[in-house]
Amino acid sequence: MIEIKNLTKTYMTHERGHTLKETMINLIKRPMKQVDAVKNISLTVEKGEMIAFLGPNGAGKSTTLKMLSGVLHPTSGEIKALGLTPWKQRSEYVRKIGAVFGQKSQLLWDIPPADSFYMNKAIYGVPEGDYKRTLDHLTTVLDVKEIMRKPTRQLSLGERMKCEFIMAMLHGPELVFLDEPTIGLDVIAKETIRDFIKEMNSQGVTFILTTHDLDDVEMLAERVIVINHGEIVFDNTLGELRGRLGGKKAVRLTTDTPFPDKFIAGVQLLNRINECEVELEIDIDILPIKGFIRQFNETYGILDMSIEALPIDAVMKGLYAETKKVIALV
Length: 330
Ligand code: ADP
Ligand code: MG
Known about the structure:
Blueprint: E1 2-14, H1 20-28, E2 32-45, E3 50-54, H2 61-69, E4 76-81, H3 90-94, E5 97-101, H4 113-124, H5 128-141, H6 157-169, E6 175-179, H7 187-202, E7 206-210, H8 214-220, E8 223-228, E9 231-237, H9 238-244, E10 248-255, E11 267-274, E12 277-283, H10 289-300, E13 302-309, H11 312-321
Parallel strand pairs: 3-7, 3-8, 5-6, 6-7
Antiparallel strand pairs: 1-2, 1-4, 8-9, 10-12, 10-13, 11-12
Helix pairs in contact: 4-6
The structure holds adenosine-5'-diphosphate (ADP) and magnesium ion.
Magnesium ion binds at residues 61-62.
């Protein structure tokens, strides 16, 4: 469905001076600065996949999605998506794709979403029958029938985001890009949107999404691609991502004696809840659970304990720490 080869995007920006003198000089001469946002990315996406793009701020996720959706030309490299080159065959391409960019609205501010939907129908030439059926289905699933006739500016963020999804899906795209689709939403709205994405995916729509919300990843994506400094540092399943960091476990512990912050090799503090309650990361290759219990029970008296897989944010931290090292390319 998508074939990306050696994709690179370099932005040229003006360097801004910090001191007054520099700012004055900048009025006459503005030095250019080069930002390598995406460096030589290659990957293949199959039909029906749901991929989460993860990475710290500035990693190059949005830039990649913008090139994939055809709004941005790459500096070099190729993309073939649905048999087309996004930025060259743009008008043909946009009929087959959908996009929701959390930070940028497709809805017109002063008119109700219902009118924006109708406008998209005209733009994409969606036949009346299809339009009615799809709209009815989408507005039911996303529960926006009540609010879609209010002007967009009066809607809550969650209501607006649900309408953004309808804008993106009305013409029945096969491939959808979502850039931080759940950012700033409350738990209920997140749930509705995730269920919606899942349902569309089970009907064969391919999704690529970026997110900072690791629950999105947990609930949606099978394949996780991690970008750091514009390069792919991981491309595999979520389970594999956890496994990469060795036999690490998250242990929640309640003791009868206050617990220290510094421990022995193989044990790290993830989170302190109170004096006698902590979350620890244990590397069981260094310290097996049995040994851990023996040592800690003697000194602190274990009252309660749970052992779980490492939370993904801890896994991500570990991964970013291994900057630039390619961990696993499929
Ligand atoms: P992410 O979405 O992962 O946070 P972006 O793709 O937005 O990252 O940005 C990648 C890098 O490119 C960052 O260093 C960012 O500052 C830079 N960048 C993004 N957009 C532009 C732009 N229009 N002009 C110059 N630099 C940009
Ligand atoms: Mg971004």
